[in-house]
Design goal:
Length: 296
Amino acid sequence: MTHIFEGIGVAMTTPFSNNQVDYEAYKNHIEFLIEHNAQSLIINGTTGESPTLSDDEIKGLLNTAIETVNGRVPVIAGTGTNSTERSIALSKYAEEAGADAVMLITPYYNKSNQRGLVAHFTTIADAINIPIVLYNVPSRTNLSIEPETVLELSQHRNIVALKDAVGDLNYTIEVLNLVDENFALYSGNDDNFTDFTDLGGKGLISVVGNVIPKELQDVYERQTNNDRETARARFKDLMPVINAVQVDVNPIPVKALTAELGFGQYELRLPLLPLDEAVRQTVVDVYQSYKEGVRV
């Protein structure tokens, strides 16, 4: 089976101007990401501030992405919510709009047990005919998809991948030992990317990829082409930028960098607030220092 993508998928930010989506900046950012070798775009995820987007904005962002990308890379729509019925409605819309896949987060606040997770994800998967990436991020949802549950869900024809943002490679190993090679694991943590790939992960759904997709993809390609020493060295060079976008809650720091590159104002929606100016400047300085010495 061919995976949805291998390498770097970018969990895109949503640019705002005066609290409105800046679609022109968004399209420019898409062009930048494709030009710089992003292998997939993930729309309306956590990094895109999806909890604060209206349904019209969610649909508008997805439609704009699909039209702008025009088949050049896969577009994955974040359609998971804590409501099964709403997740089905958004997933059906994504399929009809032309998305290549959807990504479904574990339900939050109204916590489920593992049986409920199976029923939730299976019900959504039965309602659509495009691939599904499960999204496990217990630090945000206080709920994890247990490895045995991943195995059970992987038997569904539409459930083909997991974004693993658990941050514990022991979990990753356990899942990889259960599922077959047709089921892809993508890291959801920029900082464990090379270790994750060494274990058998197929890539990364990245936050920092919003500004350095080419550099991350270069690391992946070198690593998977047995140039591990160079890959590790280049990834080490990236770590200051990766650490810089982790100084506060995602996507607060990375939007300082997308704004610096001209992809919208440095604006977030409440309850998120921009970094204090001194911290913002430090994040920008780290990025600029890296770019001045980059060799890709």
